[in-house]
Design goal:
- There is one protein chain.
- The protein has helices at 5-17, 34-39, 61-75, 90-101, 120-127, 141-154, 169-184, 200-211, 227-244, 249-255, 274-287, 296-309; strands at residues 30-32, 45-50, 80-86, 105-111, 131-135, 159-161, 191-196, 217-222, 259-261, 317-322.
- With 331 residues, the protein is an alpha/beta fold.
- It binds pyridoxal-5'-phosphate.
- The site of pyridoxal-5'-phosphate has 19 residues, from α4, β7 and α8.
- Pyridoxal-5'-phosphate is lined by residues 60-61, 90-91, 165, 167, 195-202, 295-296, 323-325.
Length: 331
């Protein structure tokens, strides 16, 4: 269902008036991937939105979310950010960088085993001055963050928890704004394909598409969870995002059309697949662009499969939204 243009104009004006942290230089480039398309016999017009090339903190999709999250924390007097992720979390690295740039401390609750020799994101988080605590599995992250917040409060600090992936309604505003950024660059894709996990990127892109009254499909290639779980999360985030822009949450939720595909995960989160290995090599060898096995290589593999087997029509303009993750190649 398409939204009333008066409502969408007002919502986009509300977003434009909202404070955002600079965190790098925007817009990120949009490149043609003609050599990749030609090498793989793909007839669709293929573009890439290069959020891997965000200049701040080694970039990636979390930076766009933190541009909206950080000013909100600063306005609330927060001095310590607590968040969570795996040992090689891109989100942890981006949050530690954003906290550092705002003069805040960052405490990370990490599921996994403390590395004896930290590499890649784990190493960068140390350079950024974050502190760490380790828990055995994902289910322990939330209670551990809450306990950490209590400890910081008792010590007289002003902590705030940034949920996994900064996938909150405020964080998702970053990807609502990103759709406007893309349109201002003159690219109007029929289909956007991106890597998804905690739902914030999808929620923002889908809400952005609805608010700009586009017909663009947004396909999230899941890095882990099944479609029903991701879509429930996306709807919850969009339901909270609407009121931030002066809309009824339900009105915006009714206007989005989430598509989530978990058939490219393979044997599990972060495990390479044959298709992700081929996508990684093809992007590097035709375009000099790096994608990672956990997220962006699986998303690119999905995009290529959809283009080759007709799930995306050959006359479509397709945009691969590169969400970053290349730091993990050094793990
Ligand atoms: C490189 C990369 N791409 C995609 C995602 C998924 O984004 P989201 O959590 O917003 O669904 C993440 C984080 O989980 C990521 O680090």
């Amino acid at each position: 269902m398409s939204l009333d243009p008066n409502l969408t104009r007002a919502a986009l004006a509300t977003l434009a008036a909202r404070p955002s942290a600079s965190l790098g230089h925007f817009p990120t480039p949009i490149d043609r991937f003609d050599r990749l398309a030609a090498a793989l016999g793909i007839r669709q017009r293929l573009f890439a939105k290069r959020d891997d090339a965000i200049t701040f903190g080694f970039g990636g999709n979390k930076v766009r979310k933190l541009r909206y999250v950080i000013p909100d924390l600063v306005a609330s007097g927060v001095d310590t950010v607590i968040t969570c992720g795996g040992v090689q979390s891109n989100h942890a690295r981006a949050t530690a960088a954003a906290a550092a740039s705002a003069g805040m401390a960052c405490h990370l609750v990490v599921n996994g085993v403390e590395p004896t020799v930290p590499t890649a994101n784990a190493l960068l988080c140390r350079h950024l001055g974050a502190t760490f605590e380790y828990v055995a599995d994902r289910s322990e992250r939330k209670p551990a963050m809450e306990r950490a917040a209590d400890r910081f409060r008792e010590a007289g600090r002003h902590p705030a928890i940034v949920p996994l992936g900064a996938s909150t309604p405020i964080g998702a505003l970053g990807y609502v704004a990103a759709i406007g950024e893309m349109l201002a660059q003159g690219v109007h894709p029929d289909v956007i394909v991106h890597a998804g996990s905690s739902g914030g990127t999808s929620a923002g892109l889908l809400a952005g598409v609805a608010l700009h009254r586009l017909e663009t499909r947004v396909i999230s290639i899941s890095a882990d969870d099944p479609p029903a779980a991701v879509i429930a999360e996306v709807r919850a985030i969009v339901g909270g995002l609407g009121p931030l822009l002066g809309l009824e949450g339900a009105t915006l939720v009714d206007a989005i059309r989430p598509e989530v595909d978990d058939t490219f995960v393979g044997t599990g989160y972060g495990h390479p697949t044959d298709a992700s290995t081929r996508a990684l090599a093809a992007a590097a060898r035709t375009e000099g662009v790096f994608v990672d096995h956990t997220y962006s290589a699986k998303a690119l593999a999905g995009l290529l499969a959809y283009c080759q087997d007709g799930r995306i029509s050959t006359d479509a303009t397709v945009l691969f939204w590169h969400t970053g993750g290349q730091v993990a190649l050094f793990a």
